[in-house]
Design a protein that fits this description.
binds FE2/S2 (inorganic) cluster, alpha+beta, Rieske Iron-sulfur Protein, 37% strand, Jelly Rolls, 4-stranded antiparallel sheet, single chain, 243 residues
Length: 243
């Protein structure tokens, strides 16, 4: 990906934050910390709330809704916050701020991060990149569960269950989050959840059987991925509030 113009430095006053369009429907929060600029996800990782509406004192960003806080230089959680903010590399050239090169969703993803680079490469070769519009439905219960998805950018919400017996499964917000994982399990040929894009989103779509074949050729990575997959499933099937 080539770098993309975001704004002029003067557009973000000292010790202020502002939200910008980062292309492809993505939103980016730019923070000015005493003249240093940092880029982050624009939406709170807790719920669907714009972080630019929060409180910011030049070093700590506070979401106004439930007061989660983050160190603006690192994105690390402070106090009540349970997860870090996703950071985006910025490149400053003169008075212009650009969104810099970003690592691939597979490299940073919760399932595949840190496994053998050759295996990541083989998985990347299987991935089809899809750009989906806001409101686009990715799948619904009963659809064939052949492929799983890795979120590259945007936001996806999913519901678990059928008809009136559904419960919110959660939001996918962070680059690298994996969903549609029935495609990686034996004995689950159809979806048990629905997934929909809350905003324009970029996704990697990977065939589950082909991915399992790649992983079977690298038992060490396969073990790591399967362990992470088990925790991921446990996390999303836990009653809300237990996550
Ligand atoms: S929505 Fe931001 S802290 Fe809850």
């Amino acid at each position: 990906m080539t770098k993309r113009f975001v704004c002029r430095s003067a557009d973000v006053p000292v010790n202020a934050v502002k939200e910008f369009d980062a292309g492809g429907g993505r939103k980016l929060l730019v923070a000015n910390a005493g003249g240093d600029y940092f880029g982050y996800q624009a939406i709170c990782p807790h719920q669907d709330v714009a972080l630019c509406e929060g409180l910011y004192d030049g070093s700590v960003l506070t979401c106004h809704m439930h007061l989660w806080q983050w160190d603006i230089r690192t994105g690390a959680p402070i106090g009540l916050a349970e997860v870090p903010l996703e950071k985006y590399p910025l490149a400053i050239e003169g008075d212009s701020i650009f969104l810099g090169e970003q690592p691939s969703a597979l490299d940073v993803g919760e399932l595949f991060r840190g496994i053998a680079p050759e295996t990541i490469e083989k998985l990347a070769a299987l991935a089809q990149r899809e750009a989906r519009e806001q409101g686009s439905e990715l799948y619904r219960p009963g659809d064939p569960a052949d492929d799983f998805y890795v979120l590259d950018s945007g936001r996806v919400a999913f519901l678990i269950g059928r008809e009136d017996r559904t419960s919110p499964g959660g939001f996918m917000l962070k680059k690298g989050e994996v969903f549609g994982w029935a495609a990686l399990l034996d004995g689950y040929p159809v979806r048990i959840a629905s997934a929909r894009c809350l905003e324009a989103s970029a996704l990697l779509r990977i065939n589950g059987r082909a991915a399992l074949k790649v992983l079977e050729g690298d038992p060490v990575s396969c073990y790591v991925v399967m362990r992470r997959l088990a925790s991921l499933i446990a996390r999303y099937l836990a009653p809300s509030g237990a996550r």
